[in-house]
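# step 3/5: fold
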Amino acid sequence: MKKFFRILLWIIVVAIVGGTFFFLWKNSQPKEEHYATVSPATQDIRRTSVLNGKIEPRDEIQVKPQISGIITQIDVEAGDFVHEGDVIARIKVIPEASQLSNAQSRIDAAKLEVDDAEVKFNRSKELYAKKVISREEYENAEKTLKKSRQDLQYANDAYRIVKEGVSQFNAKESNTLVRATITGLVLDVPVKVGSSVIQANTMNDGTTVATIADMTNLIFKGNVDETEVGLLKPGMQMEITIGAVSDVHPTAVLEYISPKGTENNGANTFEIKAALSVDDPSRLRSGYSANASILLAEAPGVLAIPESVVVYEKDSTFVYVRTDSLPVPKFEKRPVVTGMSDGINVEVKKGVRKSDVIRAERID
C-alpha cells in the first residue's frame, strides 16, 4: 500500500513539473498577430476649414440725440421697421442756468436796440417830412429799425431753443425730436421714458437712444487660425450653417481678412468678414451663431490611403506593405511621400501602388 502511494506521489510531481515546463514553453512562443488591411484608392482630397462666428448686419447704426435732456416719449420698440427721418423718441430739454441767463441777456440787449432804433426812426421821419434830412438818411434809420427788430426775434428764438429745444422757425426739425438716420430694423432701444440722455461731443460719446440696422445686407463675421489664414483670399466661396435655423443654407463670399491678429485662448486668430447671400433675410436675426465651411485646397483624382495607417517618425513617413500572406502575413516597412490630407485620408505621391495591401489597425 505504501508502495502505491509513493508511485502516485511521483506521478503527481512529474505531472506538475511537466505541466510547468509546457506552460513556460507555450508562453515563450511568439504570438500570431492579426491586422486589418487596406488598399490605396483613387479619390478626391478636399481640405476644408470650419470657422466659428456669427451673423451681423453690415450697417448697424447707433442713433444719438442732438441735445441733452430727458426722454419724454419713445415711439418705437425693438423689432419695428423704420424709415430714415422717422421720429423714434422725444426729449424734454433741461436748460443750463448759465445758457438760459446768457440767452435772456441777449433779449434784453436786443430790446434796448429796438427802443433806440424806434426813437431814431421817428425823429428821422419827422425831419424827413420837413425836408430837413435826405431820403437816404431816412431809409437808413428805417433799415436800422428793421434789423434791430429782427435781432430781437432771433434772440427770442435762441432763448426758446435753450429753454425748450424748439425753434419757432423750424419746429419740424427740432433737436428735441430724435429721428432714424437710416431705413432698417430697430434692434435695440436701451433707454426708457424718464431716462437722461446726453448729446455727443468731444468729451462724451453721447447716449444711444436706439440701434438700427439694415437687415437686408448681412455679413458673416468670424475668426480664422494663423495656420490657415495664409490660405484664404478675398472672393473665396463659403457655405454657412446656422444652428437656430437649420433649414436655411446661405452662402457667402469672403471679402475681408484682418491684417492684424489677436490672441484668443493662447492662439493667434484673424478676423474675417464675408458678404451673405440668402433668399429670405427676414428669417435671420442679428447675432445668430454660425459656422462657415470654406474650401482651402483640393486634389482631385489622387491615390489616397487612410491617414491612420501612416507611421510618422521625425521628418519621415512610412507604411507597412504586405509582402507575403501564407502561412502568416508578413509586412515590410516602406517609406512614402504624402501630400494633401483632409483629416481622414491622405494623398500618397510616392511609395505605394494601387495594388498594394497595407497594414491597418491590429485585430485582437
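# step 4/5: annotate
The chain has a mean pLDDT of 85.
# step 5/5: archive (pending)
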